[in-house]
């Protein structure tokens, strides 16, 4: 079993670290919020007194932090994690951040460093069924795969440094546009006198079938587990979708890719968040569309 350092014990990091403990690994954990550390320590992890202390002596060091600036600071700046990690350690960042920062940290870390963002949300983190999209050297990927398997079900090597983040932001840009147009279709159906169930029964078996429709259906009823049935409690919060759409647009600008629907989805989600939707599931954007506020 491996020695693992884990830093960032929020909604995602805490259940991920607990699953590593459950798999029998020896896990040292740190977060700037002491109660987060205490919570995971109660499940069998060791509390570290700093990010560097969690990294020291570990075979694998993992971060799960909010954004690029936190990741850069933790590994290369004040956190000092890249320096503190031992010569044989493999470093993994599971946060969703911009491709540029992922590549910059990987290049400066001085040790094998992989970006491994996830999809599957808090439910996937708790159930250990996350999808990991990984960027970094193939030999390091082979090493980290068994560690990621304790937290996820689907693990894909996407390419070199930054490729995991690229896959994540492309996936979420597609998801945002698909969810938006699925919501538009339900609102149009309402106005045409077509029932939610009838549209669902047709579209879920036809060419418009999608995860947004069959798992996260934006109206209550057809998919009982979807956030629409619990007043759009996330799930995947609109604020996080807005963040990912911003990262996608940043990347598109950097490389000169045309992403007109992605850009428009960003504007729609910005408005939804500005009007109080930040903490709602992203499928809650249907309410804004229904009100015609676009
Ligand atoms: P969160 O805000 O709940 O957790 C982040 C944690 O990092 C917090 O506990 C915070 O105290 C800690 N932290 C911040 N700076 C730190 C530092 N310097 N040292 C140590 N700890 C520090 O966020 P989350 O929902 O767990 O998301 C984490 C990452 O995963 C984000 O990049 C997010 O975009 C991504 N993500 C989230 C979801 C989701 O559904 N929540 C799904 C997929 C990906």
UniProtKB/TrEMBL annotation:
The keyword Protease does not apply. One of its GO terms (biological process) is branched-chain amino acid catabolic process. PANTHER family: 3-HYDROXYISOBUTYRATE DEHYDROGENASE, MITOCHONDRIAL (PTHR22981:SF7), 3-HYDROXYISOBUTYRATE DEHYDROGENASE-RELATED (PTHR22981). It is an enzyme of class 1 (oxidoreductase). Residues 162-288 form the 3-hydroxyisobutyrate dehydrogenase-like NAD-binding domain. It catalyses: 3-hydroxy-2-methylpropanoate + NAD(+) = 2-methyl-3-oxopropanoate + NADH + H(+). The keyword Kinase does not apply. Signal peptide: none annotated. The active site is at 168. Its EC number is 1.1.1.31. It comes from the Bacteria. Pfam families: NAD_binding_11 (PF14833), NAD_binding_2 (PF03446). The lineage of its organism: Bacteria, Pseudomonadati, Pseudomonadota, Alphaproteobacteria, Acetobacterales. The gene is mmsB. Belongs to the HIBADH-related family. Coiled coil: none annotated. It comes from Neoroseomonas soli. GO terms for molecular function: 3-hydroxyisobutyrate dehydrogenase activity; NAD binding; NADP binding. Residues 3-159 form the 6-phosphogluconate dehydrogenase NADP-binding domain. Pathway: Amino-acid degradation; L-valine degradation. This is 3-hydroxyisobutyrate dehydrogenase. Keywords: Branched-chain amino acid catabolism, NAD, Oxidoreductase.
